[in-house]
Design a protein that fits this description.
Length: about 80
């Protein structure tokens, strides 16, 4: 997966997130989907940051791995 394809996926997820947030009267399934989209966005941004850091320090960006949502969502900063 390239940085470009990750960014394209982020763009798609952001569009879906906006759509879900602007939907009238959110149902349980909409709220569940929104949480899933938010988790996926966080995972994509994390993967992109990993790839950029690896590249910056001379490592292979292809070695970056998608971390599980629980790990990414649990960051404290």
């Amino acid at each position: 997966m390239s940085d470009k394809s990750i960014l394209e996926h982020i763009t798609t997820l952001v569009a879906e997130e906006h759509e879900l947030r602007s939907a009238p009267a959110a149902s349980d399934s909409t709220a569940t989907r929104l949480r899933h989209v938010e988790e996926q966005l966080d995972q994509c941004w994390d993967l992109l940051r990993q790839r950029r850091a690896k590249r910056e320090f001379g490592d292979d960006p292809a070695d970056a791995k998608v971390r599980d949502a629980r790990t990414v969502e649990g960051y404290v900063g």
